[in-house]
Predict the 3D structure of the following.
Amino acid sequence: MSRFYITTPIYYVNGEPHLGHAYTTIAADVLARYHRQKGDEVFFLTGTDEHGTKVAQAAAARGLTPRQHVDEMAPKFQRLAERVGASNDFFIRTTDAQHEAFVQGFVERLRAAGDIEKRTYGGLYCTACEGFWYERDLVDGKCPDHGIEPIWLEEENYFFLLSNYQERLRQFFLAHPDWVKPRSRYNEALSFIEQGLDDISISRSSITWGVPVPWDEEQVIYVWVDALINYLSALTYARPGEDLTATFWPAVHHLLAKDILKFHAVIWPALLMSAGYPLPVAEAIHGYLLMGGEKMSKTRGNVLDPFAVMDQYGIDPLRYYLMREVTFGQDGVISLEGFESRYTNELANELGNLVSRTVSMIEKYRAGTIPSAEGSAELALQAQNALAHMGERLDELEITAALEVLWDFVRRLNRYVEEEAPWKLAKDEALAGRLDEVLFSLAAGLRAVALGLYPFMPATATEILRRLGQPQDEAEGKRAGAAWTLALPAKVQAAPALFPRDLTAR
Ligand code: MSP
């Protein structure tokens, strides 16, 4: 049995959760569910990043203390994770006392390694990034990511000697070309390293909302260092009385968007090297959800409220749409029109209709009992191939590609219905055996679809199995048999359309 540890970034609680946050959480959930289905031992972590200037400013703007603000905001992110169906094993908050203590221990290790120095530093700081920019990288004097003017920040801080790790990082990258996926992001991170790494300030004296530097209580630890360490700290207290570090580190896979590539692919591995931890297995970098041509972001104000979208369309359709529309690893434009079009064409017409037709034909021609037969050898092979290819794609963290493989099989089943025309076979008693084969094949094919669909649309997959009279926990990987089989005898269950065309009827 393998171990699989998957993380999302921990989200800033300076504003409401939006669809961009939901996207990464859903992608991580797809991978977590797929690995559980395979029988792997899985740990799935998400959470909130609650310290730093950005959060302190958001609290001040609301006339609240940072503590009041984060205690009000963090549960909204927790609810979002629950609402999108995330099966996370833990939800970390960087204000957890155990996390704070762990962070202090971690920076002590950096210091013991001789990688910390006190220096004065001034630079252009974007509070939205919580990071410094070089003047040459600004666009019209503004942060290229957030479109706001950075402020000049000058402080005496503790520095982490990132430059000490330049060569080790470069060697690590060269030895592990698949460490950062896709390759374009790997190249970006490697070229960043090769351009030369400056030491980075890892403490702040200008703010108090953070984890105190253990050897100097006048300073707090830089929010990004505090945040990155969550991936380790969570393992030490997620399960009371147990330390999961030896089990799940370094079997870790980080998911994130390209906005925070440098922090994860350059700074984080250097911190881990300094503190003496092995590096993660892989980092999968995805693109941006774009709305009206721009990155959807709280700072830009062009966000969609995921709760409202789910109220209207349901959870599984949203999961499907996001994973299908925004090719994992690339940017993708999303819109309500695009959503409705995929909902109608793919979910209602292709999948929903296939389920309704299969169930109603079995009811009509075989009194609701799935006939016992061998089924089409060709479809059996295609089902096996579809599930195997999906697995290969998901093992490579290529989520959209996996869904495309499944959909080709859904379309194949629809063509099979048209080719075999069971309504014609039913008219001729001499073709009863042939009709049995076709009905069995459709039910077996749909069962295979449900298994492949489960990581993406867990409730829908379970419902398809229920309608086919199949054990529902099979989708989670429990008792799952071969790709092509049915538990018989089984009675199908008719039920309303899986994806009603009239969305207001939901
Ligand atoms: N707190 C830091 C992360 C610390 S991780 C140790 C942070 N938080 S954030 O709230 O800004 O979240 C950024 C992440 O949210 C992105 O990397 C991505 O996972 C997700 N997304 C936010 N907006 C998004 C889009 N418009 N599109 C895709 N993903 C988006 O950065």
Notes: The chain has two domains: 3-310, 336-505. The chain is about 50% helix and 15% strand. Residues 3-310 form a domain with the Rossmann fold fold (CATH 3.40.50.620).
